[in-house]
Amino acid sequence: AQKVTQAQTEISVVEKEDVTLDCVYETRDTTYYLFWYKQPPSGELVFLIRRNSFDEQNEISGRYSWNFQKSTSSFNFTITASQVVDSAVYFCALSVTNTGNQFYFGTGTSLTVIP
Amino acid sequence: KAGVTQTPRYLIKTRGQQVTLSCSPISGHRSVSWYQQTPGQGLQFLFEYFSETQRNKGNFPGRFSGRQFSNSRSEMNVSTLELGDSALYLCASSRQGSMNTEAFFGQGTRLTVV
């Protein structure tokens, strides 16, 4: 069975602080993809990143960076120098072989950036 | 390029009624998936359609059904509504619907059952 755990329910930081959102996943599949999505108050899920199970390279995109470690089954997301516009709910998700477009989502982390 | 369009954005229905939600995917995308989002259960997969065929189904009762048309637009139907069906229903479209393709989500339909 597949499972994604986001232990942090809510996080508050002051603007310009760095913040890391944790994600731990479980799967027995050797081929899988991990995702991060952002959900602003408007409701739609905005794609942030996709990483396959064979690529453990960390990735940086502007103020965003992701750390994928298969040894600990974690795919953590760091926002550097947070801004008020980063306030949203962030979801980590897992997709495995032969389940098409089915995502297994974590419960989400609500991030509030205080000005 | 137009995004994923879900209609209506808001709905209020009475217990026992049925409801139909619509999702128009991005042009060229053949896969449409539906998710239910509630505060208690989070985001849960309902089903996926690809080229008019249901390819995958989540663990929901038969009251939840869907279909996809030849233009890839999809509808989901919930019959005999229950209070617990109150949720944000999100649809996602992707070109191929495989796990390695990016999925784009609509803004959702917020259904309230009273």
Task: Describe the 3D structure.
The complex is a heterodimer of chains A (115) and B (114). Chain A is 0% helix and 53% strand. Chain A is mostly beta strands. In chain A, the strands form three sheets. In chain A, strands 2, 5, 6, 10, 11 and 12 form a six-stranded mixed sheet that branches. The model of chain A has no long low-confidence stretch (mean pLDDT 92). Chain B is mostly beta strands and 114 residues long. Helices cover 0% and strands 53% of the residues of chain B. Chain B is built from no helices and eleven strands. In chain B, a hairpin with a 5-residue loop joins strand 7 (64-68) and strand 8 (74-78). The chains are: A mainly beta (115), B mainly beta (114). At the A-B interface, strand 5, strand 6, strand 10 and strand 11 of A face strand 4, strand 5, strand 9 and strand 10 of B.
Global morphology of chain B:
globular
What is the terminal-to-terminal distance of chain B? 37 Å
Low-confidence stretches of chain A: none
The tally of strands of chain B reads 11
Helix % of chain B is: under 10%
pLDDT < 50 runs, ≥5 residues of chain B:
none
Number of helices of chain A: 0
Largest sheet of chain B: 7 strands, mixed
Please give the structural blueprint.
The complex is a heterodimer of chains A (115) and B (114).
Chain A: E1 3-5, E2 10-14, E3 19-21, E4 24-26, E5 32-39, E6 46-52, E7 59-61, E8 64-69, E9 74-79, E10 88-96, E11 104-105, E12 109-114
Parallel strand pairs in A: 2-12
Antiparallel strand pairs in A: 1-4, 3-9, 5-6, 5-10, 7-8, 8-9, 10-11, 10-12
Chain B: E1 5-7, E2 10-13, E3 19-24, E4 31-38, E5 42-50, E6 53-57, E7 64-68, E8 74-78, E9 87-94, E10 104-105, E11 109-113
Parallel strand pairs in B: 2-11
Antiparallel strand pairs in B: 1-3, 3-8, 4-5, 4-9, 5-6, 7-8, 9-10, 9-11
